[in-house]
Amino acid sequence: MEQYLKQLPKLAKDKHTENKKYFDKLKKKTPKDLDYKMQLIHDDVFKKTDCLKCANCCKTTGPLFTLADIERIAKHLRQKPQQFISQYLRIDEDNDYVLQSVPCTFLDHENYCMIYDVRPKACREFPHTDRKKFQQISNLTLKNVEICPAAFAVVEEMKKKMPL
Q: What is the chain's alpha carbon radius of gyration, rounded to the nearest angstrom?
């Protein structure tokens, strides 16, 4: 897995132009049943994916924290939201709350999330390959294929099963 993760950014870069063209066509000519087909592809890929063997998303990127996330996680940690913010978060260039550093503070040495049951919405939904109106998040997907082997596999399956 580690070797594959090292190769993933290059594999994604090599496919970037092809994937971008595919997503541009997808936006112009969106299949009526795209959400249904994407759910099937997503489910199929994730049946074969063990995120605990990878955790590259937690090791290389940080999620956005909504105010609801902050309140929920702070309560779980028995902190006031402001304490949680000052201890773990910073405001980024887009004015969003993000982790002060990566890898994620809440990732343990066995790739388990110590706040899994109350994790941020962005973590729960990552890599967003089963999101409704999937064609609207192509830029996000192009970024995610660089860090998530499952997202990479989903896009490759899309191109096979839904040629445009």
A: 17
**What are 130's two structure tokens?**
């089963």
Please return the burial class of 33, using the count of CB atoms within 10 Å of its CB with bins 0-12, 13-18 and 19+: exposed
The model's pLDDT over 56-102, given as tens digits with 9 standing for 90+, comes to: 999 999 999 999 999 999 999 999 999 999 999 999 999 999 999 99
The span from the CA of 70 to the CA of 83, in Å, is: 10
Phi, psi of 65 (to 5 degrees): -110, 120
Find the largest Cα–Cα distance for the chain.
51
Q: What pLDDT digit, counting tens, does each position of 109-140 carry?
A: 999 999 999 999 999 999 999 999 998 999 99
Report the distance separating Cα 79 and Cα 52, nearest Å: 28
Distance (Å, whole) CA 121 – CA 49:
20
All structural domains of the chain with their residue ranges: 35-45+56-61+126-163, 64-119
Beta bridge partners of 90: 98
